[in-house]
Predict the 3D structure of the following.
Amino acid sequence: MENFEILKSLHHNGKLLILPNIWDTLGALQLQDLGFPAVATASFSIALSQGYPDGEKIPFDEVVKTLSRMVKQLKVPLTADVESCYAKNDTELVENVKKLADTGIAGINFEDVNHAAGTMYTTAEQCKKISLIKNTVAANNTALFINARTDVFIKQAQLNEQEKIAATIERGHAYTDAGADGFYPVFAKSHEAIQEITAAVKLPVNILLLPGIPSMAGLQQLGVARLSLGPGYYRVAMKAMKELATELKEGNGMEIVQNNNLTGDYLKGLLVQNK
């Protein structure tokens, strides 16, 4: 419960919460060591790093194990991207939420997408799920910060920009009433869209770092509470490895490894100091 309150307060202190979404324990510990007040995961990054496509293809128990390992080492709150909770029905949703809460995570990203069908849940269906999550954790004397994600900007391509904004705001109001703690209009990126959404939805708004979004200072001025990197952090890491591998293949790049001042002792120390 304490980590839930800390995570919640980080969304209401007037300062932009920046979360480079991680996929493993060591990366999470490094973010903590660098002074990030909370750590977040990305479903894309966890799945791909373990050899699965994104979209709830990785076994749910593998996700739970990964989160459990992180929580055991971290001293700051961990919030997890769990897609649609890997649940085909309400019974599975309750069971999976209990498993997630038992790991000790402080929050979740919860999507309004039916991954099996590739479509969005109706607003009423998603509100029922949000309420069910809230009631499930309350019944177990725990709490999860529900960052309610909507995929309107991705899944409703038939709408024009203003219609997407209106549909997003409509869902934001409904998710607020259902008990969500935050609102994540993924792929909303124009100044106008972000401005209208943050002004209309009375929840902390989370924006994904994409090309074309306002600067960090601009996001703060618009009232955005949280900036996520999503899979972007993982892609940056993979790009660095690809570039080095390409150099080595061509007989170059030795100095990149030789001049790397990130030592093995530093990385091992992250694990030791948090046991």
User: Anything to note?
Assistant: The chain is about 50% helix and 10% strand.
